[in-house]
Structures are given as structure tokens and as C-alpha cells.
Design a protein that fits this description.
The structure holds 2 protein chains of 2 kinds. Helix content of chain A is 63%, strand content 3%. Chain A is mainly α. Chain A has a domain of 84 residues. In chain A, strands 1-2 form a two-stranded antiparallel sheet. In chain A, helix 2 packs antiparallel against helix 3. Chain A is elongated, with a radius of gyration of 27 Å. The N and C termini of chain A lie far apart (62 Å). Chain B is mostly helical. Chain B contains 23 helices and no strands. The longest helix of chain B is centred in the middle third of the chain and has 50 residues. The C terminus of chain B is likely disordered. Classes of the chains: A mainly alpha, B mainly alpha. Chains A and B meet through helix 2, strand 2 and helix 3 of A and helix 5, helix 6, helix 10, helix 12 and helix 23 of B. Chain A: It comes from Streptomyces johnsoniae.
């Protein structure tokens, strides 16, 4: 009495993705890869690349936070820096106006170089 | 009169460059929105800096410094630091995603029309918060140089920006904004050097005098809270992370040829901003010596324009005033046009179907609302309002982009919840800070610049709600794609 087997909808993996996204994404967006189109090795390589980039981004963000919060904390804590002058400027003003920008640039340049190195390898 | 002439010349030059841009444009929708990605990197960095250096930097920074002290320069540090975060976190992956706008990215990464619409609404909130202080600056400066009522400057700025944008779209905006960066830098820097030379030895010494007053403290405070470190950190958090989520800035990176170029463009912007931000401080320091009366009058945002006339009386003084006023006008013109582009994108590209005529209509509608909002906003400090725009961006789009790019576990539910909580908390706090006065203490800081709690809150809500659900099976591939170099990424 089992009768005819239940009808099963057969769809290609790509159609399943399209259906689960519910609507067609705009044409100019990067298309998603078809599942199974890349080998296990490729997938593992992409994962490794991603994790290296993520570690790098986290390090850069840490350096940025250290610079911003560290410098402001330093200037807030060490009021003596306001009483010392260098080239006619109070040192605390000099640090605030002059030191932060070059250091920000250094952090950004180091990040971009490292990110491009990871991409080349 | 000289002031009006200088501003008139600036308009004419901007329009001429805009028209050249129009002739070079085929005017398809991608052309209109992102210049079809054929903008040279140097121009692109200059255009980003030109668009980013707004009335907040040209007028607001010196004004806030005069009013609240040297610590206001932390705003400038945060504005610049934002580009380190942009280069490290979003520039490359966003470029690879192929999305023009933040709502586009939400579509790519989460595949949801609801989130796309929610994002478009948030774009409008940020843009209007940002446009109002720009138009306010235009009204105040025009009032100073020509005596016209405040509203004339606001309406005039609104109509000029609308006309030039509606005519050419992003393509012409790129060149106009690159040109405006140069104008802003020269028109602020040259008078600044001139003023330093002419101020005299005594005034220069006086300007650098460090005393025990709160003015000299190298931390900023908000509304006299007495919590300078908390206020400084909250402003830094808002400005740095806000830059990551500013829709008009994000849009600019899609005009780069590849993801690597987009990252380098972000680094170029840091250089251009660092150079520029040396100069507003000059006006703040000298303003403290020459124009202390502005603090009592409450119109400190005008110090940059008033100062040249105070230091150098007579003909040269009015020429310098005219130059600075034209520089200030370049600031609202370029920032406003970038903002209106993103706003138009939000109104028509994301909320309904895009076409060039409809984008033009959206530009006009967006500008009209901003002008109406600016009319009663004359007493709001430029930097405070811009700080709110940054806080909203930092509490909504920053977590969406950062988690969307770097964490495969982000789900639709998580993103929706985080965006909703972030936008409600940040705008609610800003509103509360306008309407109430809780007195000195940490509470006033957390309302006046809410980023210190709304950013962690938005991140937390997105992560926790995402962990409760399951990301779709294609989520990991969508994330990995954003980091894959080479032809696979369709660069």
C-alpha cells in the first residue's frame, strides 16, 4: 500500500541558492560561486587566506586603538606634559597636533603592505 | 563685496568643471552613481578628501577649539584615524563585492530586501544629520560676507548643489571635489601662514600660552560634563568607526579599478587629511587671542572667516576674508554634493527602481528636506551635529560592514536587530541631549556623544542574535569571495 513515491523537487545547487536568496540580486554585484565548482584544496586555500587577512586586520585595529586611546590617556594622565615646552609649543599640544598623523600613516602603510603581501603569496 | 565675488568665482569654476564632467559622461545609472570605475587613483583620493573635509573641518573645528579648547583637535585626529580603519577593514572587500552602496552590500551578503530597505532609511538619517550643519555653515558665512539673512545662504547652497549634481552625477562630482580639496587646502593654508606672520610676536607667544584653564587641557569635553577622558574616547570611537560606515565615503571606493587600488586610495586620503588638519588649529589658536568676543556671542563657528579682518585691517584683510569664505563654501559644496549623491542613491536606487531622471528628482527632494531642517538649526554647533552623524554611522553600518566582511556567522536576523537597535539608540540619545540637560557627569557625555555605548551595543546585538540563528549555507562562500584576490574576484 505504499503507492507512488512522494514527488521530490529536484533543483540544481545554483537554483537552490537563488531560491534561498528569495530574489534576484542586482546585476552588478559579485556572483556567488556555484557550490562544488571549487575543489577542497581551493576552498582550504581561500579559508587560510581569509584567516591571515583577518589576523592582520585585528592587529592593525589593535595598533590603532592603542595609539588613539593610549595617546589620549597619556595626555590626560600626565599633565606635566603641558608644562614642558619644545620649540615654543607645550609638549602636550605638540603630541596632539603633530604626533598622531604620522603614526596613523605608518599604521596604514604597514597594513596595506602586509595585506598585499598576503594576496601575492 | 570681495567675499561675494570670490564665492561667485568658485561657483563658476565648479560649474565649469561639472559641465566638462557631464560631457565626458555617457550617463548610465552606474556612471551617474559611481562614475563606472574609471577614475584615476590620485583624483579619487583627492575627491574623497575633498568630499570629507566638510564645514565641520573648515569652520567647525576652529570654532569648537575657540569655544572649548585645544582638545577639540581630537575630532580631527578621529576623522583621519577613520581612514586607517577604512583601509584595514572595508576598502578592499567592499570594492570586490561590487556593491555601490551599503544597502547594495547588505543585498550581496545577506540577500534580503528588508535589510536593504532598512539600510536605505538609515542612509537618509545619517545624510540629513550631516547635511544640516553644512547648510548651516553656508548660511552663516554668506551672512558674514554679504549681510544677507541666514536663510538666503542656506537656500542658495541647497539650490547650487542640487543643480550641479542633478546635471552631472558622480562623474562630474569627482572632478569638482578633487578641485575643491585643492581650493580648501590653499584657501585655508595660505591665509593661515599670512596671519601667523602678521599677528606679531606678542600675539604668537600669547596664542601658545599654556595655562591651568580647561582651554589648555589636551582632552575635549562635552557640555561641561567634567568627564574629559570619557568624552574624548567617545568622540574618537564615533569619528574613527563612523568613517567606516559613512555611506558617501564607502560609495567612493567603488570608483577604484581594483581592491588593492581602493586600499591605497584610503592611505592617500590619510596623507591629504593630515596635511589639511594642520591649519584649522592656527585659526583656533589665533582666534583665542584676537576674537575672544565670539565665545560670548555664541557664534564661534564663524571664527575662521572673522579672524583675517581682525588681524589685517583694510584692503588685504577683506581679500583674505574673501579667500577663506570661498574655501569654506568649497567645503559645503563638495561635502553636500557627495552627501546628496548617497542620499539620492538611498531614495531611488534602494527604496525603488533606479533611473537617471528619478535619481535627479531624488537629489532635489533630499536637498529640499535638508534645507527645511537647516532653517531652524542656526544655533547648533557644526561639529556637534556632524558628530551625531558619525555616531549613527558607527552604530549601524560599521558593525554591519565589519561583521559582514569578517565573520561568516552574521545572519539576516542579527543584522536587522543590530541595525534597528543602533539607529534607535544613537538618534534617541542625540535627541535626548537636545531636549534635556542632566547636568554634569557621565550621563551628559553618553547622551551628547553616544558612540561609547551605542557602538558596543550594536555589535553585541548583531553577534548575539546571529549566534541564536544559523547563517545560510552560502554565507561562508560570500565572505571568502570578498578576500579572494585575482580574476576570480571579477576585478
Amino acid at each position: 500500500m505504499s503507492g507512488a513515491p512522494r514527488r521530490v523537487r529536484v533543483t540544481s545547487p545554483q537554483t537552490r541558492i537563488a531560491l534561498s536568496r528569495r530574489h534576484r540580486p542586482a546585476q552588478h554585484l559579485l556572483p556567488l560561486p556555484v557550490p562544488g565548482s571549487e575543489g577542497d584544496e581551493e576552498l582550504a586555500a581561500a579559508r587560510a587566506l581569509f584567516h591571515r587577512q583577518r589576523r592582520l586586520a585585528a592587529r592593525t585595529l589593535g595598533a590603532l586603538g592603542l595609539l588613539l586611546f593610549g595617546l589620549s590617556g597619556l595626555l590626560g594622565g600626565l599633565t606635566v606634559l603641558g608644562r614642558v615646552t619644545a620649540w615654543g609649543f607645550p609638549v602636550s599640544w605638540l603630541l596632539l597636533m603633530g604626533a598622531s598623523y604620522p603614526l596613523l600613516l605608518v599604521i596604514a602603510v604597514l597594513h596595506v603592505r602586509a595585506a598585499e603581501r598576503i594576496e601575492r603569496e | 563685496m570681495t567675499g561675494l565675488l570670490a564665492i561667485g568665482l568658485l561657483f563658476a569654476a565648479s560649474m565649469a568643471i561639472g559641465v566638462y564632467g557631464v560631457r565626458a559622461t555617457r550617463l548610465t545609472t552606474p556612471d551617474f552613481l559611481v562614475a563606472s570605475r574609471r577614475v584615476a587613483p590620485g583624483w579619487n583620493a583627492m575627491a574623497i578628501a575633498g568630499e570629507y573635509v566638510s564645514a565641520a573641518s573648515v569652520l567647525g573645528l576652529a570654532g569648537l577649539m575657540l569655544k572649548n579648547g585645544i582638545g577639540s583637535l581630537w575630532y580631527a585626529v578621529g576623522f583621519t584615524a577613520g581612514y586607517v580603519a577604512v583601509a584595514a577593514l572595508v576598502a578592499g572587500p567592499m570594492r570586490r563585492s561590487g556593491a555601490y552602496t551599503v544597502p547594495d552590500f547588505a543585498d550581496y551578503r545577506l540577500g534580503s530586501q528588508t535589510i536593504r530597505k532598512l539600510c536605505a532609511v538609515i542612509v537618509l538619517v545619517i545624510m540629513w544629520l550631516y547635511l544640516v550643519p553644512q547648510f548651516k555653515g553656508a548660511g552663516v558665512v554668506l551672512h558674514l560676507v554679504s549681510g544677507t539673512p541666514y536663510w538666503v545662504g542656506v537656500v542658495l547652497a541647497g539650490s547650487v548643489v542640487t543643480a550641479s549634481i542633478a546635471a552631472g552625477g558622480m562623474r562630474s562630482a569627482t572632478y569638482v571635489q578633487g578641485f575643491h580639496y585643492v581650493v580648501k587646502l590653499l584657501f585655508i593654508a595660505v591665509p593661515a601662514i599670512f596671519l601667523i606672520v602678521h599677528a606679531g610676536d606678542d600675539a604668537r607667544q600669547e596664542a601658545l600660552r599654556m595655562d591651568v584653564s580647561e582651554w589648555s587641557r589636551p582632552l575635549l569635553d562635552l557640555e561641561g560634563s567634567g568627564q574629559p577622558l570619557l568624552a574624548t574616547w567617545s568622540v574618537l570611537l564615533a569619528t574613527t568607526l563612523g568613517a567606516v560606515g559613512l555611506p558617501h565615503v564607502i560609495m567612493r571606493f567603488h570608483t577604484s579599478a581594483t581592491a588593492a587600488v581602493a586600499r591605497r586610495v584610503a592611505v592617500g586620503v590619510i596623507v591629504l587629511l593630515g596635511v589639511f588638519y594642520l591649519f584649522p588649529a592656527v585659526y583656533g589658536l589665533l582666534g583665542r587671542v584676537f576674537t575672544p568676543g565670539l565665545v560670548r556671542g555664541g557664534d564661534t563657528d564663524t571664527v575662521t572667516v572673522v579672524l583675517p579682518g581682525e588681524i589685517v585691517p583694510g584692503g588685504w584683510g577683506s581679500v583674505l576674508t574673501a579667500i577663506v569664505a570661498a574655501g569654506a563654501f568649497a567645503a559645503f559644496l563638495s561635502t553636500s554634493s557627495g552627501l546628496l549623491m548617497a542620499l539620492a542613491g538611498g531614495l531611488s536606487h534602494d527604496l525603488s527602481r533606479a533611473s537617471v531622471p528619478r535619481l535627479r528628482l531624488a537629489v532635489a527632494a533630499g536637498a529640499l528636506v535638508a534645507v527645511l531642517l537647516s532653517l531652524p538649526a542656526r544655533s547648533v554647533d557644526i561639529n556637534v551635529a556632524v558628530g551625531w552623524a558619525f555616531a549613527v554611522a558607527a552604530s549601524t553600518f560599521c558593525p554591519l560592514l565589519v561583521l559582514g566582511i569578517w565573520w561568516r556567522g552574521l545572519t539576516r536576523a542579527g543584522a536587522t536587530a543590530g541595525l534597528a537597535v543602533g539607529v534607535l539608540a544613537a538618534t534617541g540619545a542625540a535627541l535626548a541631549s537636545v531636549l534635556t540637560d542632566p547636568g554634569p557627569g557621565w550621563l551628559v557625555v553618553l547622551l551628547a556623544q553616544p558612540a561609547a555605548w551605542t557602538v558596543p551595543l550594536a555589535f553585541m546585538v548583531m553577534i548575539v542574535v546571529s549566534l541564536l540563528g544559523r547563517p545560510p549555507e552560502w554565507a561562508e562562500r560570500a565572505v571568502l569571495r570578498l578576500h579572494a584576490p585575482g580574476p576570480a574576484a571579477a576585478e
